[in-house]
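Reading a protein record of the kind used here takes little practice once its layout is understood. The fold follows as a row of integers, each naming the local backbone shape at the matching residue. With these conventions in mind, the following record can be read line by line:

_____
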Amino acid sequence: MKEFTIGPNDAGQRLDRWLAKAVPLLPAPLAQKYIRLKRVKRNGRGSQRDARLERGDVLQLYINDEFFDAPTPENAFLSVAKPRLNILYEDNHLLLVDKRPGMVVHPDEGERVNTLITHIQAYLYQKKEWSPYRENTFAPALCNRIDRNTGGIVIAAKTAQALRVMNQKIRDRELQKLYLCVVHGEPDPREGRLKGYILKDENRAQVRVFDRPVPGARTAVTLYRTLKVRDGLSLVECDLITGRTHQIRAQFAAAGHPLLGDGKYGRERDGRKYQALYSYKLRFDFTTDAGPLSRLNGREWTVEDVDFVEEYFPEE
């Protein structure tokens, strides 16, 4: 419990607005709930959220200490009242989450709270499965990343052991991540292999594709097969042999088949908000010991729906 005495500078404020300043990490819906439950007392009694504070009022806050911390990227999960997650699978060690386009996976300069990892940490914190105030060093972490404007399956480790094992399995290519995308035109051949050399341009936040090795460039290999063709567009499934930045988008654009809606590597947005790219299927194919993740071996998950498939290639 923390106790505050209202001085002249805070007098006249509504209780709920004062509470938002005094406890910056407490989500507004939770603050309203605590006021209703009388976990916020004014002069020893409950109060209404719109009550005007007076000089000399004594406020007693029965609120966890961590909500009083200064806001930082590390404690942003406390500000998430209702985590928004589409969970495909969960066990004691990891989560598989279907990330929708538009959500960034990690905090950046433009977004600190509404990120995938923040919502995952809030979810586990509210389930009382994890708390940074009990742990020494570990925090739930993502094992793979997906661009903000791309959707798909993201693996999140709930334990340090799971994080170590899964990261090694990814490096050893003991799992397969399949993508769906819509490209302009029809790839020729309809099924094949794209190989190039990708060089990152940090200043422009994009990459360039070369057909031969150049200094600083890394090999990029994508297997693909065309599933459907309609109205000048092709639905293509991709299997990333390497995992370079913007690999699918850049390689298909370089091959003359930019992704639908990709304003960075292709044409204009084509009326779409996001590029038509989705990491839709995940398979685990462990060839070595997986420890606590062994139960996943041989299993496969597929997202329930991909909006651009239904829009451009409806079942007939």
In short: Helices lie at 15-22, 28-36, 116-126, 160-171, 247-254, 307-312. The first helix runs from residue 15 to 22. The first strand starts at residue 2 and ends at 5. The chain is about 15% helix and 30% strand.
